[in-house]
Amino acid sequence: MCGIVGYIGENSASPVLIDGLKKLEYRGYDSAGIAVFGGEGVQVKKTKGRIADLEQKLVIEGTPEGSVGIGHTRWATHGAPDDLNAHPHRGGNGRITLVHNGIIENYIELKIMLEQKGYKFVSQTDTEVLAHLFDFFYNGDSLEAMSNVMKTVRGSYAAAVLIDDRPDEIIAARKDSPLIVGLGKGENFLASDIPAVLKYTRECYLLDDNQIALLTRESVKLYNINKQEIHKDIYHVTWDVEAAEKGGFDHFMKKEIAQQPGTVRDTLSPRIKNGSVVIDELSLSDEEIKNIGTIHIVACGSAWHVGTAAKYIIEHLAGIPCEVDLASEFRYRNPIVRPSDICIVISQSGETADTLAALREAKGKGAKIVSIVNVVASTIARESDDVIYTLAGPEIAVATTKAFSAQLNVVYLLAIKFAKARGLISKEEEEKYCREMLKLPEIIEGVLKMDPYLKELAKKYVNSENVFFIGRGLDYAISLEGSLKLKEISYIHSEAYAAGELKHGTISLIEEGTPVFAVATQPDLLEKTLGNIKEVKARGAKVIALVGENHTDADEFADDIIRVPEVSDFLMPSLTVVPLQIFAYYMAVGRGCDVDKPRNLAKSVTVE
Length: 608
Ligand code: G6P
Known about the structure:
By secondary structure, the chain is of the alpha/beta class. 36% of the residues lie in helices and 23% in strands. Helix 14 packs parallel to helix 18 (573-590). Bound molecules: 6-O-phosphono-alpha-D-glucopyranose.
């Protein structure tokens, strides 16, 4: 959600900025812009639409020349996604040029104050307040001005600033929005995320909240909000550029779906040793695990679906009561959290604003925080007591696939670990589950081979207006994910229902030909779901049954069948989710949608 880049060096800044912005496209945006220091001061070029539109504009109007600049992709919050509201914004008659990611909560009061002082606003953004405010505080000392701005605003920000009378410097700061500094030789970089700088350097500073970075060509100095210089360890990026490229696939989403066997293997294998689950990152002793009161699981979007599955799995295997909350609800409902509770926080990006706030809420109430995070050293990772990284590598497509699978597998590991510590499964059972989990990558490999069949299936349903998903228990959790995948990338209206709940209203939406995916893999619930399948079938639905390969009960009522191999019940989500991802992918492709960057969506949602 919004992307920031910055460059200061000897090379032409514009291409570096544009290239960096392209690497951040996955974050979601609806306008883009750059500002570059040239012979005649700072030149700004910005436009609504895609980076391709910005490039077009540069061809027509000329590319700003100069070797210092900042760039931005904006995901609109305050004001429409148009040219005027696009970043960079100017402050103080153009003396300040600024890009910003986040939300300034007290911008209205600041705007009134600044207007009274004679500042003129031209956009509807909260960001313009930051630009004028910086100008207001600037009297030749950029660090002083940044520190004062940070002390005055409330809200979240990553911001980068060019100042007219300081052509050899970029100053930047962050709070609750990611920002990294890439370290080069005779050049330095700024970005919201590592892929934007990886082409040039693997050495980075990962800024923490309330930290300031002052970049020149030769140096990067870091300060706290009180202008005291601080020193940070350099973070060395171990993955390479290819990991953030499409590698021959038409879309990142397709590549990431295909990567799932490897992702699952990487996540599981270091944590299964001699038939035992060993989670070195987990500092809870067996005694502490025995004494856990409640597990609070908080997350957003797909990660919340993993949380929904986790509740079923952990309660079933380890007998610990779990509460699953949407992070955005948890943070404001004054949840009852006791010191004996733990909070499992699930997040691919590790930056989701609501999830982070929920983490802080639980932590403030004394719960230990165990997070399942993909992005190393992200804010959620850094604020957790224990972090279990999903070793999925960079996930670029907005719609998550491989990170989802990796998160599920961490949940399996935790459930088994908890169950063992509480004496609810034997050593033999643990060994059996471990053996089975280690086979999952190969089995998922097999499920991926259904691709041509799912492609054809998507052709059959590509013109549907409404698609429903039903399932019970763990199948319900996967129905939620299947439905979200479909609607977010194909823009087809879709809803997922606990199969037993459908008749309490939603069944009135089923008409002749409405596709209904029935996920029915959990043996103890199969009969019940079968009953629900019959109910929708009787009302004209086209039923697509997603079942274990040994189950034929649904055949008679299904118009189409997707069969996946059978594994232990609690591991089935790893197999059922894959065909639903592939189906959604082909539906979106078939409808000509922008699969990797669906409209209005952002990969990393850093505002609440
Ligand atoms: C966005 C993404 C989803 C993701 C959700 C939570 O909405 O598009 O794919 O599930 O945020 O993100 P997180 O990074 O916390 O997992």
